[in-house]
Fold this sequence. Notes:
- It is a single chain.
- By secondary structure, this protein is mainly alpha-helical.
- It has helices spanning about 5-10, 15-25, 45-80, 85-105, 110-125, 135-150.
Amino acid sequence: MADPTYEELKTAMTREEVLEQQLAIMALPDFNLPTESWGPTDEPMATLAADAEILAAAREGFLAEAREQMQAFESALLVMETDPGDAENLNAAFRAAHTIKGTAGLFGCDAVVAFTHDVETLMEELRAGRRAVDAEVSAALLEGLDQMAVLI
């Protein structure tokens, strides 16, 4: 069986997966970095390595931001249990969840986006007054926070 072509790999893998595979190849002891361009896009390997470093740094930034927003979300949920009528606190919880969803979307974390959208939908019901904060809602939101952490 022949090795897959660049085009076959490109359609089967995301750009990040291709970059990670290329970096793994570059780490092999007998790999020599070519000085000429390669592939249909004519991107030098050094540029791909730099792209991978940028993606890794951005991913770390995303994870740090997500942890921060999850802490803010949890704090707001705990306040919500003792003061369910605090509209500003509810808005703060919604903003934290919305930020998690938005940044996850930038990184293609579709499961986080879809799940967090469901959490936002419940919170929108609370914000609109169509549903009241009670023990069941508080438990569901805290479980939602736990699930978001698992997905991230």
